[in-house]
Design goal:
The chain is mainly alpha-helical. Among the domains are: 56 residues, no CATH class; 61 residues, no CATH class. It has eight helices and two strands; from the N terminus they run H-H-H-H-H-E-E-H-H-H. It has a two-stranded antiparallel sheet. Strand 1 and strand 2 form a beta hairpin. Helix 3 runs antiparallel to helix 4, helix 6 runs antiparallel to helix 7 and helix 7 packs across helix 8.
Length: 188
């Protein structure tokens, strides 16, 4: 029995050493991995961010490749356009395929506030008609739309007919007298 004690002690020492070395290696690997990982984005967030990096033409070409089942060509296109690594490009294209994103043009840095002093011209003519009894007036302009006409009607109905008439002349080619006649028909 005494002859077995020494080999068993050696065996226990070796097992303890291997266990300690294994635990040390695992903790070093976990510490190394946690220091190099970034917060993981959801696939939807990844798709949104990936789509934002594409121009309209690149977006259209990439989704055409995805629709044709040409995943490798789509990854190559994304890789060339963005300069991301192959793995990041593969993940981005996979997210875009799984969560399609519409093209959104980049927002202008600071959009100037819409100023009523400079009316915008629209590609269509807007017709506003007001009538009371036998009297009917019509204003037709490519500087009017539903929103602007709605503001003018709100001004007229709230009793501020002069401001409504001024706004109407600013957004059409009629005189102030004609605008006052038109607003008078709106004032109920």
């Amino acid at each position: 029995m005494e002859s077995l004690v020494v080999p068993v002690l050696i065996l226990l020492t070796v097992v303890a050493g291997v266990t300690l070395a294994y635990r040390a290696a695992r903790s070093r690997k976990a510490a190394h991995a946690s220091s190099h990982t970034q917060p993981v984005a959801t696939p939807q967030e990844l798709a949104r961010a990936a789509a934002a990096r594409l121009s309209e033409d690149e977006h259209r070409r990439l989704y055409a490749l995805i629709a044709q089942g040409q995943a490798m060509a789509a990854i190559k296109l994304y890789y060339e356009v963005t300069g991301d690594g192959l793995r990041a490009s593969r993940d981005a294209v996979g997210a875009l395929a799984a969560h399609p994103q519409p093209y959104r043009s980049p927002e202008p840095a600071q959009a100037p506030e819409e100023d009523d002093d400079e009316p915008q011209r629209f590609p269509y003519r807007y017709r506003a008609i007001a009538s009371k009894g036998d009297v009917t007036r019509e204003v037709s302009s490519n500087m009017l739309n539903d929103e602007i006409y709605g503001r003018i009607r709100t001004l007229a109905r709230s009793g501020d007919t002069e401001a409504a008439a001024t706004a109407l002349t600013r957004h059409s080619d009629i005189s102030l007298k004609q605008a006052r006649e038109f607003i008078a028909l709106l004032d109920d």
